[in-house]
Specification:
Layout lengths: L1 E4 L5 H26 L7 H21 L5 E4 L6 H24 L18 H28 L4 H14 L7 H18 L3 H20 L2 H6 L1 H22 L24
Antiparallel strand pairs: 1-2
Helix pairs in contact: 1-2, 1-5, 2-4, 3-6, 3-7, 3-9, 4-5, 4-6, 4-7, 5-6, 6-7
Length: about 270
């Protein structure tokens, strides 16, 4: 699965999409406050819904706008090797992010944590774990990164899409781990130019993170710090080895840019 585009995007265009996402948050929250008068910070489920709907709106506007010539190609394409690689690296990343959270105790801003994973109810799990994973990958890898690849190098497209993905999760405590997740899914997209593995990584990451949140690792770290450190180190090894193994997998054929229409030659005869 991928999004086909003919012209791509400039960096300014990619950042305008990010600002459109922010505008959707502000507009949605403003309308709800205008009609209800309630403090939305008390209703995390509403804020998560606004985040999901804002992202979907940006995606739909991008696909509908004929000027930019974006078109979704809903083709499932993932091999067994890619599936296993994506699944294992996503699980390893969850533990690395958990360890990074202890090494970098950044301040948490609860009022901006609505883009994180929540397990308070069935609705919160479905939206924050499943639906947002598909929405964010389609937006940040399928549209933004794919479009940037038409105008810039793979490294520029990867770093810019990962940065924008990180800024879409504005709680400082989330940012380092979110940037790493953007890099991992971006590396897979850069290699295969297909969203199926990106969806799998993001969904596996969210499910594992939700289970980790429910189980809690602080007690385990306090009780067995050596074992916890060994697990984190092993996951770093898995990610490093996975990166080099990923380079050996056969990538999907790069999608060629559409050829410009050339005038047909006319044969003049007497």
């Amino acid at each position: 699965m991928y999004v086909k585009t003919q012209y791509g995007l400039s960096l300014n265009g990619a950042w305008k999409m990010q600002l459109s996402l922010y505008a959707g948050w502000i507009a949605g929250a403003g309308l709800l406050y205008f009609f209800t008068g309630s403090d939305l910070l008390l209703y995390t489920s509403l804020l998560i819904t606004i985040h999901l709907l804002s992202g979907i709106s940006v995606i739909l506007c991008t696909l509908i706008n004929k000027k930019d010539n974006f078109r979704l190609i809903p083709k499932i394409n993932i091999s067994v090797e890619t599936f296993l690689m994506a699944f294992s690296m996503a699980l390893a990343l969850v533990m690395v992010k958990d360890g990074l959270g202890y090494l970098l105790p950044l301040p948490a801003w609860p009022e901006l944590s609505f883009t994180s994973i929540h397990t308070g109810s069935g609705y919160m799990i479905i939206v924050s774990v499943m639906l947002t994973a598909f929405m964010e990958e389609l937006l940040f890898r399928g549209i933004i990164m794919e479009a940037l690849l038409h105008r810039y190098s793979g490294g520029v497209a990867l770093l810019q899409s990962s940065l924008l993905f990180m800024l879409a999760h504005p709680d400082p405590a989330q940012m380092p781990g979110t940037f790493l997740l953007g890099l991992l899914t971006g590396i897979f997209y850069l290699r295969f130019r297909d969203l199926c593995s990106c969806f799998l990584i993001h969904l596996t990451h969210n499910v594992a993170a939700a289970l980790l949140i429910s189980a809690g690792t602080f007690q385990f770290m306090a009780a067995s710090p050596v074992m916890y450190t060994m697990i984190i180190a092993g996951c770093v090894v898995v990610l490093t080895a996975g990166y080099f193994m990923l380079r050996k997998l056969t990538p999907a054929a790069a999608k060629p840019l559409p050829e410009k229409i050339r005038p047909k030659a006319v044969l003049l005869t007497k």
